[in-house]
Amino acid sequence: MEQEKQLQIEEAVKTILTAIGEDVDRDGLKETPKRVAKMYAEVFSSVQEKEFTNYKVFPSLNEDDMVLVKDIEFYSMCEHHLLPFFGKAHVAYIPSDHKVLGLSKVARMVEFCAKRPNVQEDLTIQIANLINEKVKTKGVAVSIEAEHMCMAMRGVKARGSVTKTFHYQGVFKEDKDVKNDFLRALD
């Protein structure tokens, strides 16, 4: 993050702390604005990166069988309250043209999409769209299950509740048997 933006965040954090009645000069808070600016640079890193480039496509014998990467842990920030939501993403695709993604790149795609202010419903679609953009597929399915701090620590205080979202493209949307294979594989 460039120095000017870091300083803007630091000043904004000082303003918030002052507005809630805190003393920004007390020992426990003196370095907080710097720490928050550094943390924001990390958790919102994809905002500055306009395109995902950290992937590789490999030749494969597979052209008709589902590839599923399950239980990809992620952390994101709710764009409505700037509070975390976190959980697991499950990503499946059916390759085309005998090309597959490196498995770790699927997890990197989830991370890339998560590192910006977001809502879970959109994050689910963004991951599927990114996979289709980077590798030709016959279809993509993405499911996310997450806990939202905006629900757990404020408002309704629904601690432990999990939100599940699903998005299907291509054969996962068109063929109920393929979709059901994906859903069964999640159990």
From TrEMBL:
Instruction: Tell me which PROSITE patterns the record gives.
Output: GTP_CYCLOHYDROL_1_1
Q: Name one GO cellular component term.
A: cytoplasm
GO biological process terms, alphabetically, are: one-carbon metabolic process; tetrahydrobiopterin biosynthetic process; tetrahydrofolate biosynthetic process
Question: What InterPro entries does the record point to?
Answer: GTP-CH-I_C/QueF, GTP-CH-I_N, GTP_CycHdrlase_I, GTP_CycHdrlase_I_CS, GTP_CycHdrlase_I_dom
Which reactions fall under this protein's catalytic activity?
GTP + H2O = 7,8-dihydroneopterin 3'-triphosphate + formate + H(+)
Report the EC code(s) recorded for this entry.
3.5.4.16
EC top class, as a word = hydrolase
Q: Which UniProt keywords apply?
A: GTP-binding, Hydrolase, Metal-binding, Nucleotide-binding, One-carbon metabolism, Zinc
Kindly tell me the pathway this chain contributes to. Answer: Cofactor biosynthesis; 7,8-dihydroneopterin triphosphate biosynthesis; 7,8-dihydroneopterin triphosphate from GTP: step 1/1
Q: Where does Zn(2+) bind?
A: 78, 81, 150
Pfam families recorded for this chain?
GTP_cyclohydroI
A Gene Ontology molecular-function term?
GTP cyclohydrolase I activity
Q: Which residues form a coiled coil?
A: none
Q: Does the keyword Iron-sulfur apply?
A: no
The UniProt record lists the GTP cyclohydrolase I domain at: 9-185
| Domain of life (superkingdom) | Bacteria
Annotated Gene3D superfamilies? 1.10.286.10, 3.30.1130.10
Recorded family membership: Belongs to the GTP cyclohydrolase I family.
Q: How does it assemble?
A: Homopolymer.
Q: Which NCBIfam families match?
A: folE, PRK09347.1-2, PRK09347.1-3
Q: What is this protein called?
A: GTP cyclohydrolase 1
Whichever gene encodes this chain, its name is folE
